[in-house]
Design goal:
By secondary structure, the chain is mainly α. It contains 19 helices and 8 strands. Helix 6 runs parallel beside helix 10 (238-264). It is elongated. It binds arginine. Residues 28, 32, 88, 114-115, 118, 322, 324, 326-327 line the site of arginine.
Length: 463
């Protein structure tokens, strides 16, 4: 045995130590050190179970459990001597445990493998991230509800094709995002519930001949049950794929909202003013206030979806059970989770700080013939015109207003009657944007009362 190989855990099998390139491609400690708290929690649960089942002497298990706490405190204090030659977090922790407590450390790995160990650690980590995502979304939804309630009856243009379509309320627009982020919350909750099975005790792939108690470790680690198939338990990364998928959809929602904030905060729109805290100035153009946070949130979907595609690609075609390819799962998930949590926090802060410019919203709402549909509906309701004809009459009036360079309410009654003799002065009522939104009282519609009802429903839901 060479000096170098004596460091490796499998020193008995190999004559020479790994060369530097092998070490570099093989090692994951540079990133999987983030799993240290989960690794130690898993090992402590495993040791307690080994003692309870009589596989380990109580004194050894106690020394292991105590020693692992020392290791954890060293890691937390930043004094832990991480070693690349020890490959990953699992072997780093175990080697340090041996230095601290001596021989009993060698008994910790009884009836388990790094395959079930890493799957357990990673699940625990991703499970925490599901909770963090739910918390982040809850905060963001809270911020949107404040905006929606304040502006339940503020009128703004609603768009399709980014062309003025019909007036909507500010509150209604905010609540559209509440629905999206609410579904995102549901996806993270669903993913968490599905992933909450313990791989620990699946060992390398086949289970173990030791009389372990997998229910005991599952319970200790907050899992609902042990995973039922040991091959599946070590080779499954669905939980990570599902987290990334939920994160990608959420990032799409964040990106769409961010894009709207970028547009709305421009000098051309002035629908919102973003706070200085979430904007930056330009180094050359003194007048500029750039919505950088919104732009970065808009962009984060790139890395989050990138991570998702990367892990799907890694997992595709892998035979059962564990393959080292799967070590490539972690950096993707770490980066995606970090990006998502940061985006959620930034969006929450931006929404809390932003001011909707009610006047600008209302002015914009009234322009672009936004009440043309209201006019057509009026022709149907009051004059009993077939909708197609009403559409045609309205289109002619819009064209007339366009030629005159005015909006629909500025046409005179005589001008309107020139197109359809039956039109009366009552029509002006529906041409106002306030009346337009107030009339859209169908369930889920833009009327202020509907918006208030939805705000109340969400407040109750979030408790
Ligand atoms: N560092 C490894 C990973 O992240 C741990 C599992 C290693 N298992 C093995 N049989 N080599 O996947």
């Amino acid at each position: 045995m060479t000096d170098q190989s004596s460091n490796a855990m499998w020193g008995g099998r190999f004559a020479a130590g790994p060369d530097a390139i092998m070490e570099a491609i093989n090692a994951s400690i540079g990133f999987d050190k983030r799993l240290a708290p989960q690794d130690i929690a898993g090992s402590r649960a495993h040791a307690a179970m080994l003692a309870a089942t009589g596989i380990l002497r109580d004194s050894d298990a106690a020394a292991i459990r105590e020693g692992l706490l020392t290791v954890l405190s060293e890691i937390e204090a930043g004094s832990f001597p991480f070693r690349t030659d020890l490959e990953d977090i699992h072997m780093n922790v175990e080697a340090r445990l041996k230095e601290l407590i001596g021989d009993p450390a060698g008994r910790l790995h009884t009836a388990r493998s790094r395959n079930d160990q890493v799957s357990t650690d990673f699940r625990l980590w991703v499970r925490d991230q599901c909770d963090a995502a739910v918390d982040g979304l809850r905060a963001l939804i809270g911020a949107l509800l404040v905006q929606a309630e304040a502006g339940a009856d503020w009128v703004m243009p609603g768009f399709t094709h980014l062309q003025t379509a019909q007036p909507v309320t500010w509150g209604h627009h905010m609540m559209a995002y509440v629905e999206m982020f609410g579904r995102d919350m549901g996806r993270f909750r669903d993913a968490r519930a599905r992933m909450n099975e313990s791989p620990l005790g699946a060992a390398a792939l086949a289970g173990t001949s030791f009389p372990i108690d997998r229910h005991m470790t599952a319970t200790a680690l907050g899992f609902d049950r042990p995973a039922a198939n040991s091959l599946d338990a070590v080779s499954d990364r669905d939980f990570a794929l599902e987290f990334l998928s939920a994160a990608s959809i959420c990032a799409v929602h964040l990106s769409r909202f961010a894009e709207e904030l970028v547009i709305w905060s421009s000098a051309q729109f002035r629908f919102v003013t973003l706070s200085d805290r979430f904007s930056t100035g330009s180094s050359i153009m003194p007048q500029k206030k750039n919505p950088d946070a919104a732009e970065l949130i808009r962009a984060k979907i790139g890395r989050i979806l990138g991570a998702t595609v990367a892990l799907f690609t890694v997992m595709k075609g892998l035979p059962l059970a564990y393959s080292k390819d799967m070590q490539e799962d972690k950096e993707q998930v770490f980066d995606a989770a970090d990006s998502l949590m940061l985006s959620l926090a930034a969006m929450d802060g931006m929404v809390r700080d932003m001011t909707a410019n009610r006047g600008a919203l209302e002015t914009a709402a009234a322009s672009g013939f936004s009440t043309a549909t209201d006019l057509a509906d009026w022709l149907v309701r009051v004059l009993d015109l077939p909708f197609r004809e009403a559409h045609h009459v309205t289109g002619t009036l819009v064209a007339m207003a366009e030629r005159k360079g005015c909006d629909l309410p500025e046409l005179t009654l005589a001008e309107m009657q020139g197109i359809h003799a039956g039109i009366t002065a009552d029509v002006f009522e529906v041409l106002g944007v306030q009346n337009s939104v107030a009339s859209r009282t169908s369930y889920g519609g833009t009327a202020p009362d509907q918006v208030r009802a939805q705000v109340a429903r969400w407040k109750e839901k979030l408790g």
